């Protein structure tokens, strides 16, 4: 029976609090990996730099106040094509703030069918702008969530009018800093209007950055309706009017940044501003005061808020909050890996709703995860191709994995927003070398997998070869060999297939741990997010009926079943010990 509580408590004890002697006796051979995966907070590997454990005792009763710092609150503004999306990614990666975009909020609320989302949908469907009060309500609700309160927030492109700014002021929502990216109009216009469409092939070109291959193609190119200089100038004028309207509200905290430089140089200036701001907030929070409470105890209790892992992961269906939590963490890990130049990546996140072997599998959750990743990179100006493998085999042997049946149609009919991303920056394709077009910047492959008697590896290898140094990201791949006629698939070329499958680097991994042969209760979890180590957690029931996850150990490589059992039993790690049994075999395969 699943736990009835639907609460989403986020808690974690530090490793120092783990009491090995209190660990129940486990049978080392009875603990196994489930194919069920889950998700952790982006802060799971970040200890808040501002927590205070110090005491000053020159006089009796004098202590350093151990109240934790108020987190950063940042607003950022920039015209279309100013590079604001790129800087938002870099800010989130460095400072761990919660990124809040009105476009993302609108899509999420409409997709969830909330009351606010339904009201917004009425206006969007009729081609009208969503009223300020609806947008402000969505932003206010998002800012009130616990993660935004604890980690701080980055408000992207909002407010856009004086009325919106005043609404936030009335609610006492005010940023610490207001960053404006300043780029000359001629540069912005060139970035926006240089695109051209080939009406025959559907390809998108840019007159300077990606010119057509021949004069014949060049002659038939057309300008899209939204890419005319007049419309771009109109959008810039609207932006300037809005920016001027709210400038008085934030004039004392406005910092204008030259956005017509390399992104690394721009972020260096932003990093300097935010780091100094964080330093100033830290200095203000550490004040000698008379107090009788135990600072160390208070800081220890707050530490559980800085690192976290969602609880009640066997409660189905997952809440919208938990799903969004998953999507955000996977996205940040993927962005870090891509920004570091990694090109062959895989994400493995099979929470119960994403585990096709469980009867609670939900294809919509997988599609939403793919959409979040694709839209984020598209917002940064990258052309993303989302690929789903087609039918494999021929004649009577033709077919495709049941998990992927209908997936392409679902992607095509999904809501990809009202900003024209689908068909321009995002396209749907299949897996194979022919699917790689010159204008594609990156590829997201949805659950590529082998089927009985058929292997996707050859098409996948041909596609990655054609992609060259462009990123290819596999979402929940299943590339193990499956038996074919007379076992041929298991023997012919098997070593090369396994070598190729292992060439993809994990940028996100989360696996729940159960007793062998069961899927309840959850015993613990293993989690890794690029570029950090694997962390092993133990789930602990609390007297109040809640649960928490206790950090047991970290590993540079994916731990073996023996290492996991030793950690649960409190045994010292044996570095010379090798994986044994079925997990040893599988770890070698993958």
Model description:
The chain is α/β, with parallel strands linked by helices. The protein folds into two domains: 73-281, Rossmann fold; 320-391 and 403-482 and 493-569, Rossmann fold, CATH 3.40.50. Helix content is 36%, strand content 17%. It contains 19 helices and 20 strands. The protein has helices spanning 84-95, 102-112, 115-125, 132-143, 146-151, 162-170, 185-193, 215-220, 229-247, 263-285, 295-306, 320-339, 363-379, 407-413, 457-467, 488-491, 494-501, 561-569, 581-589; strands at 12-13, 31-33, 62-64, 73-78, 98-101, 153-156, 177-182, 195-197, 204-206, 254-258, 288-290, 344-349, 384-387, 426-429, 442-446, 472-475, 505-515, 524-529, 534-541, 547-555. Strands 1, 2, 12, 13, 14, 15, 16, 17, 18, 19 and 20 form an eleven-stranded mixed beta sheet that branches. The chain has a five-stranded parallel beta sheet with strand order 5-6-4-7-10, sandwiched between helices. The protein has a two-stranded antiparallel sheet with strand order 3-11. Helix 2 crosses helix 4 (132-143), helix 4 packs across helix 6 (162-170) and helix 7 packs across helix 9. It is globular.
Describe the structure concisely for a colleague:
It catalyses: AMP + ATP = 2 ADP. With about 600 residues, the chain is α/β, with parallel strands linked by helices.
CATH architecture of the largest domain: 3-Layer(aba) Sandwich
Structure summary, number of beta strands? 20
Here the CATH topology of the largest domain equals: Rossmann fold
Instruction: State Rg.
Output: 26 Å
Instruction: Look at the structure and give the CATH class of the largest domain.
Output: Alpha Beta
Give the percentage of residues in beta strands.
Answer: 15-25%
Taken together, the total number of domains comes to 2
Number of helices: 19
The average pLDDT score comes to 75
The gross shape turns out to be: globular
End-to-end distance, in Å? 33 Å
Counting helices, strands and paired strands, the structural category is alpha/beta
**Fraction of residues in helix:** 25-40%
